[in-house]
Specification:
The structure is a single chain. This protein is of the alpha/beta class and about 250 residues long. It has one domain: P-loop containing nucleotide triphosphate hydrolases (Rossmann fold, 3-Layer(aba) Sandwich), CATH 3.40.50.300. Helix content is about 35%, strand content about 30%. It has a six-stranded mixed β-sheet, with helices on both faces. It has a four-stranded antiparallel β-sheet with strand order 2-1-4-5, covered by helices on one side. A two-stranded antiparallel ribbon has the order 11-12. A hairpin with a 2-residue loop joins strand 4 and strand 5. It is globular. The mean pLDDT is about 95. Bound molecules: adenosine-5'-triphosphate (ATP) and magnesium ion (MG).
């Protein structure tokens, strides 16, 4: 369980997150949605301690973010940030292999190597294993970063817009794999999505943010309404219910 209590965050004096309290239960897929600039990436970065906490408290199971040992947190929670930089000469296998670093600290064991192969297989990267990152398409590169996050073998996976650059088939395949990790491998997935239809199709729960505040939290069919789309995104996209699921008509 990740518990966020009274989290506020300022950047250069501007309030970015305002008094957020939320509990993400263990297991399942939670989607984080909201307009550009709402604070989604900032919230995820604080959970993963990529940026230091100013006010409030975040716990990941028994670990207190910012107080517990960073190594313990790294083995419990992995994050794929929205933008990541990696040396373009790295091969896919090397990049995915970096995900095992917190375990082996530079001396990979056969188990580490097996996990890397498993990650590449799971995310359809085996044919690209020897390719360097600068030769990949945007979507292939994105999948390699998701695999690197996966092989960290953590209970919690935080993914900030992993569908960026992915085509429809690759997006559906990735979401189905994340669903499977949550359903069958006890992983907890928190994923920032812009496409509400992917959120309602694959997530158990949706958290909606606007202007640094959490404004809705619940099952997709309860949370995603035409009124919410209008008030949060300030656009009048109609909503239909298809097979019990809300679908935004874009
Ligand atoms: N380092 C920074 N310096 C100044 N402002 C920042 C910084 N990081 C974030 N912000 C501001 O904080 C606000 C929230 O940013 P954040 O990246 O968390 O939004 P987001 O919901 O992830 O948006 P997007 O959907 O566009 O990725 C934005 O207004 C952004 O400009
Ligand atoms: Mg963001």
């Amino acid at each position: 369980m990740i518990e966020v209590q009274n989290l506020s965050h300022d950047i250069h004096g501007a309030p970015i997150l305002r008094d957020i309290s939320v509990t993400v239960p263990k297991g399942g897929v939670t989607a984080l949605v909201g307009p550009n600039g709402a604070g989604k990436s900032t919230l995820l970065s604080l959970m993963a301690r990529l940026i230091p906490r100013q006010q409030g408290r975040i716990t990941v199971d028994e670990l207190v973010v910012g107080e517990s040992d960073d190594k313990d947190l790294a083995r419990r929670l992995a994050i794929l940030p929205q933008t990541v930089h990696a040396a373009s000469r790295l091969t896919v296998r090397d990049l995915v292999g970096f995900g095992r670093y917190p375990y082996h600290r530079g001396r990979p064991t056969p188990d580490d190597r097996a996990m890397v192969e498993d990650g590449m297989r799971l995310f359809d990267l085996l044919p690209l294993a020897e390719r360097s990152l600068d030769t990949l398409s945007g979507g292939q590169r994105q999948r390699a970063f998701v695999a690197m996050t996966y092989v960290q073998d953590t209970d919690y996976l935080l993914l900030d817009e992993p569908l960026n650059n992915l085509d429809l088939a690759a997006s559906r395949a990735l979401m189905a794999r994340l669903r499977d990790l949550a359903d069958n491998k006890d992983r907890t997935v928190i994923i920032v999505l812009h496409d509400i239809n992917f959120a309602t199709a694959y997530a158990d729960r949706v958290l909606v943010m606007k202007e640094g505040r959490l404004c809705a939290d619940g099952a997709p069919q309860d949370v995603i309404t035409e009124t919410l789309i209008q008030s949060v995104f300030e656009t009048d996209a109609p909503l239909r219910t298809v097979e019990g699921r809300p679908v935004v008509m874009v």
